[in-house]
């Protein structure tokens, strides 16, 4: 069986991506960090639509834990592999650089960037052997433009773009594509404390995006039809930054 693994799939954008990939016929591995109930809800939503899913909790920032959980999953699923990997888990801990604490820098970078490294390295092996794979990573407008108050987040999200472009060139001969999706403001828990009314005025589309809209783009990149797209960064931001 060929699985899709989505990190941070208990809520928000990751949940919508998990649902989309399940609709495409993939059994989905729902990674999350701490909110088991939310992850179970994602699984229920997938099952209600006739799909299948398993929970796979681990902290993306923890390389040892990621390795252990992935190895255990492989041991319990001989012959199965991850064909689509979506590196979606991310956090923000905003502050001006002058006041930023070490742990706020490291937690944000570890969760997104180091998480990409630990997990992609593991999932890639089977993709290369099978000569087919999709690695899609969720960056951000913040990683392209830079946003004040987000030096940690902008650094992590920009680095994901560099890493994906380099990896895309390494693995293209084996029909593994590596792409990045860079959302602007999307209506999830991550943005619920933001001043939506004021921010909407800055967005040419005059609204926040929906997680399902990001999921549709990820679904396309995961499909066979996107086989010739690799090393790309695709923005989805309602025209906020072009
Ligand atoms: P969200 O609603 O806050 O959900 C975050 C998800 O990531 C949750 O499933 C959470 O799991 C998981 N997660 C957090 N830390 C983790 C860790 N250390 N290990 C494993 N899972 C972890 O966020 P979202 O808005 O859907 O964002 C998803 C991605 O899109 C993030 O990378 C974010 O940076 C990016 N993004 C979002 C926006 C936006 O406007 N929302 C814009 C640009 C980019 P738990 O439920 O267990 O905590």
Task: Write structural notes for this entry.
It contains eight helices and seven strands; from the N terminus they run E-H-E-H-E-H-E-H-E-H-H-E-H-H-E. It is α/β, with parallel strands linked by helices. The chain has a single domain (2-236), classed as Rossmann fold, CATH 3.40.50.720. Strands 3-2-1-4-5-6-7 form a seven-stranded parallel beta sheet, with helices on both faces. Strand 2, helix 2 and strand 3 form a beta-alpha-beta unit. Helix 1 packs parallel to helix 2 (36-48) and helix 1 (12-23) crosses helix 8 (211-222). The longest helix has 29 residues, at 102-130. The termini are far apart. NADP nicotinamide-adenine-dinucleotide phosphate is lined by residues 7-8, 10-14, 31-35, 38, 59-61, 88-91, 111-112, 138, 140, 183, 185-186, 188-191.
What is this structure, in a nutshell?
The protein is of the alpha/beta class and about 240 residues long.
Shape: globular
Bound molecules: NADP nicotinamide-adenine-dinucleotide phosphate
The number of strands is 7
Tally of alpha and pi helices: 8
The main pleated sheet reads as: 7 strands, parallel
Overall structural class, as computed from helix and strand content, comes to alpha/beta
Fold blueprint:
Elements: E1 2-6, H1 12-23, E2 28-30, H2 36-48, E3 53-55, H3 63-76, E4 81-87, H4 102-130, E5 133-138, H5 141-145, H6 151-171, E6 176-183, H7 196-200, H8 211-222, E7 233-236
Parallel strand pairs: 1-2, 1-4, 2-3, 4-5, 5-6, 6-7
The structure holds NADP nicotinamide-adenine-dinucleotide phosphate.
